[in-house]
Design goal:
Elements (H helix, E strand, L loop, with lengths): L2 H20 L3 H18 L6 H32 L3 H15 L5 H32 L3 H18 L7 H30 L3 H17 L4 H34 L3 H17 L4 H33 L8 H18 L6 H34 L3 H15 L10 H30 L3 H14 L7 H24 L2 H23 L5 H35 L3 H17 L3 H24 L3 H15 L5 H24 L3 H15 L5 H28 L3 H14 L4 H13 L3 H14 L4 H13 L3 H14 L4 H13 L3 H14 L4 H13 L3 H14 L1 H30 L7
């Protein structure tokens, strides 16, 4: 049968299938399509393209299934809208079953994904509904848990569209839940507050505050946060007012201490308030009540202390020094109880200074006496003076661990013991020269016992090590004088001869396994003998190095290295190389401690040559770590001495050595450590140069620091300061911008950038920078003053005056602010007020006084003369003709 006839027989079934599909009778349509396929397969056995025709009909079947799935999804969406989630899910499950019948993989995958997406949406909607029910029943915690879990799922579904409408709806529901819970808690807290239960009200307000903070950013959240802050502040204010009244009553009833305690309690409450003008006012009010009382107590105690230190040569009497320090400390203890204010800061600072000055005077005279005793070699008296100084230093107003003077005194005590040790060691060395080895050993033992009296320090450890080496040296000299070393060397040679004979015998063993084992054992023993010889040489090297015979020591090391070549087994060889390397490193440290850094580097270079011979990567890295640390420490010590050029050479050396690491992570870590210190010292040098106004040198240091690490904020800040010093304002601004980008909370960087902008005539930008500085710290008087200068330059005199006044609120003794307010008053023709401001500025600053005092005097005299003349004219008023 021909193709045309066969297709003619198939065509009715296909048409019937299309009609059934349009009627949404999908199963019947598929059945009709399949009958068409059956005819093709039965009648068209001879057709070459039969399978192609079958494929076309199979595509029609896939489309029928696809249409059926679309209809089911549409129905599932309607069921979901009606909140019939069970039926919606059942429909989608049925659609999923149908999708398995689709033969085309791409179409099947597409439909499966769509069904899964719809299923997820149904689950989300069902969760949202259950959350709404919980919200309606005021089960806020349950509702929040449900909505948050729903939001988490929604973000996974719409990961590429986080602004999706459903996600935003869920966030709104979360905010709504928080808001209803918030309002309920606030209402409950309001009732407590109205019923005079502030404690209970505050607890609920704070819970409400936590809830408000959890809300997503929105206008509603901002309103709630403002509202709750106001409510909390109101509770605090009610308690503060009560306590202030109570404190006043107690003070007026001569219960001063009770009143101060009550006012302190009020201050703690005010401190807990949210920042506001009211908070500042209440703290000022409490301060104005409490601080004058405390100041009244401080002054007589302070005067008593000052009377003690006015006595001639008071510092020579430890009793007077201790009594004065304790008196000032008593005054300081009262000052520290003052309410926070600039007045408190001044008293605390003044008393701190008095204590430190008193103690320092007492300490210094004892240090000088101690030095004299050391020169006389009266070490016991010297130590006694230093312990007296130590007892004085403990009166200084800081924790003992943070007291620099105590650390200096302890170091001085150690230095005295070291001087005594040096004296004893010198005697011991003389005995060694005289070959009185036993007596020398006793002397060195006495020196070692003195180290037990020293404070723990690296220097003490070094001295212990030094004395032990001297003891060893004395013992070795005794041994050498007895011929022990030659005897030992002979023993080594005899042992080697014996082992070589054993090795020859081992090679004759017929059993291969036994032979190999025996040969291996004997070779290990031979290696151990070589190792013992190396250890003996190392000990001699140490002995020579202790005597300062570094060249001889180097020769002995080279001899030791020759034995290394004779060792067969890698583990033994590596261990001995490590020992030789460690010895060189130890001698390097010894050289560094003596500030002989060049010799220290020589030893380290020898150590590096030895490290290159080690095979074990882990051992290599361990030795490299030690080497880098010492080189870095050399650099740090040189930086402390402000020998920066030599310091940087050491850091460059350390970076070069770090390339030898086998472990790349360790290499990166150590390079980061070196760079951190490198940049720190470059910045320290930059700071020193900046203080000395060597701006070009500062720029060089900063450029180098940025080349090494461009993420350090301090570098850009210093960079900007240098450009500012050079009046290169554009460049300064660029650097400050980078500084505040790296550290947006740095108020000083914002302030300095404002100065650069001001001097560069970018006044609006400068004002914005100063505004940012005072936003970070509203007590930053310098920034308020600088902002006022900008407004003055813009001829906005009202704002200029306002911000000069603001700077004076924080720092009343700011002479320039008073001077320029005076200028503004003059410009406004308010001469009397202007004069008062200028006169106050003259009182505060001698430089201003020298410029204006005579002019002000002349002005006042002129006014006086005019006044007198006017009075005279008044008396003669009848003579004046109109």
């Amino acid at each position: 049968m021909g193709k045309a006839k066969i297709l003619k027989k198939v065509k009715p079934y296909l048409k019937e299938g299309d009609k059934l599909k349009e009627k949404k009778e999908y199963e019947e349509a598929v059945r009709s399509y399949r009958e068409g396929i059956s005819i093709l397969r039965i009648k068209g056995t001879d057709l070459e393209d039969r399978e192609e025709e079958v494929e076309k009909i199979m595509d029609l079947i896939d489309k029928a299934y696809s249409s059926q799935i679309d209809d089911i999804i549409e129905n599932a969406e309607k069921l979901r809208e009606k909140q019939d989630f069970t039926e919606s899910n059942n429909a989608l499950k049925a659609a999923l079953e149908i999708s398995y019948n689709i033969r085309d993989e791409n179409l099947r995958y597409s439909k499966t994904e769509e069904i899964n997406h719809q299923t997820s949406l149904t689950e989300l909607e069902e969760l949202i509904q259950s959350g709404k029910v919980a919200l309606k029943n005021q089960n806020f915690n349950d509702a929040i848990d449900i909505f948050k879990e729903t939001l988490k799922d929604a973000k996974k579904i719409f990961s590429s569209d986080l602004d999706n409408k459903l996600i935003q709806e869920i966030k709104l529901l979360i905010n709504k839940t928080y808001n209803e819970n918030f309002n309920g808690l606030v209402a409950e807290a309001d009732d407590f507050f109205k019923n005079n239960k502030p404690k209970e009200a505050l607890e609920l307000y704070k819970v409400a505050e936590d809830i408000a903070r959890e809300m997503y950013s929105s206008e509603l959240k901002d309103i709630n946060m403002t509202k709750i802050k106001t409510k909390i502040n109101e509770v605090y204010i009610s308690q503060i007012l009560t306590l202030i009244d109570k404190g006043k009553t107690e003070i007026n009833s001569d219960k001063i201490d009770d009143g101060l305690k009550t006012l302190r309690e009020a201050y703690h409450l005010a401190s807990d308030m949210f920042d506001s003008e009211e908070k500042k006012n209440y703290i000022d009010q409490i301060s104005n009540l409490a601080n004058p009382i405390l100041i009244k107590r401080i002054k007589p105690i302070q005067n008593e202390g000052e009377k003690l230190i006015k006595q001639e040569n008071y510092e020579e009497s430890i009793k007077i020094v201790q009594e004065a320090a304790k008196t000032f400390t008593n005054a300081l203890n009262i000052a520290e109880k003052m309410i926070e204010s600039s007045e408190k800061d001044r008293y605390v600072e003044k008393l701190d200074d008095l204590i430190n000055e008193t103690c320092t005077s007492g300490i210094n005279i004892r240090i000088n006496k101690s030095k004299d005793y050391v020169n006389e070699e009266s070490y016991d008296k010297a130590i006694s003076e230093m312990y007296s100084a130590l007892s004085i230093a403990k009166n200084m107003p800081c924790a003992e661990d943070d007291n620099i003077e105590i650390e200096k005194i302890k170091d001085s005590i150690n230095q005295i013991y070291l001087a005594e040790i040096d004296s004893i060691v010198k005697e011991g060395k003389n005995l060694l020269v005289e070959k009185k080895f036993e007596e020398a050993r006793k002397i060195f033992s006495d020196a070692l016992s003195i180290t037990n009296k020293m404070y723990l320090s690296k220097e003490m450890d070094r001295q212990v090590s030094r004395i032990k080496n001297l003891l060893y040296k004395a013992e070795m000299k005794q041994v050498v004088s007895d011929g022990f070393i030659e005897e030992e060397q002979m023993k080594f040679e005899e042992k080697l001869e014996e082992l070589k004979k054993e090795l020859e015998k081992a090679e004759l063993i017929t059993d291969p396994e036994e032979r190999n084992k025996k040969i291996s054992d004997v070779k290990h023993l031979i290696d151990n003998v070589y190792a013992d010889q190396i250890n003996l040489l190392i000990e001699q090297c140490k002995k020579r190095a202790d005597e300062g015979e570094f060249e001889t020591s180097m020769d002995l090391f080279k001899k030791a290295l020759k034995f290394i070549d004779l060792i067969e087994y890698l583990v033994v060889k590596d261990n001995q190389l490590v020992k030789i390397s460690n010895a060189n490193i130890s001698f390097s440290v010894l050289s560094g401690n003596k500030r002989n850094y060049s010799k220290g580097i020589e030893f380290l270079d020898e150590a590096l040559k030895i490290i290159d011979k080690i095979e074990n990567p882990k051992l290599i890295d361990e030795q490299i770590v030690k080497t880098i640390k010492i080189i870095k420490d050399f650099g740090i010590e040189l930086a402390k001495a402000e020998k920066f050029k030599e310091c940087y050479e050491k850091f460059d050396k350390a970076l070069e050595v770090s390339k030898k690491f086998n472990n790349s992570d360790l290499e990166r870590q150590k390079q980061e450590d070196i760079l951190e210190v490198y940049v720190r010292e470059l910045n320290n040098e930059a700071l020193i140069q900046l203080k000395n106004k060597n701006y070009e040198h500062t720029l060089e240091s900063c450029k180098k620091a940025i080349e090494l690490d461009d993420s350090i904020q301090k570098t850009y800040f210093l960079f900007g300061n240098a450009y500012l010093g050079l009046n290169q304002f554009k460049e300064a601004i660029d650097k400050y911008e980078k500084a505040v980008e790296l550290s947006p909370e740095d108020k000083q960087a914002w302030n300095n950038m404002g100065l650069a902008q001001e001097f560069g005539e970018q006044l609006d930008s400068a004002i914005k920078s100063f505004e940012k500085a005072v936003e970070l710290d509203d007590t930053f008087s310098e920034a308020w003053y600088n902002m006022a200068n900008c407004y003055f330059l813009k001829k906005d005199l009202d704002n200029a005056e306002k911000f000069y006044e603001k700077s004076l609120e924080i720092y009343p003794d700011y002479a320039n602010s008073r001077l320029f307010i005076g200028e503004i008053k003059f410009k406004k023709k308010n001469y009397d007020s202007a004069l008062e401001y200028v006169k106050k500025a003259i009182e505060l600053d001698d430089r201003i006084s020298s410029e204006l005092k005579n002019l002000v005097g002349t002005y006042e005299n002129t006014l006086h003369s005019i006044n007198e003349k006017l009075s005279e004219l008044f008396k003669k008023r009848e003579d004046i003709k109109i």
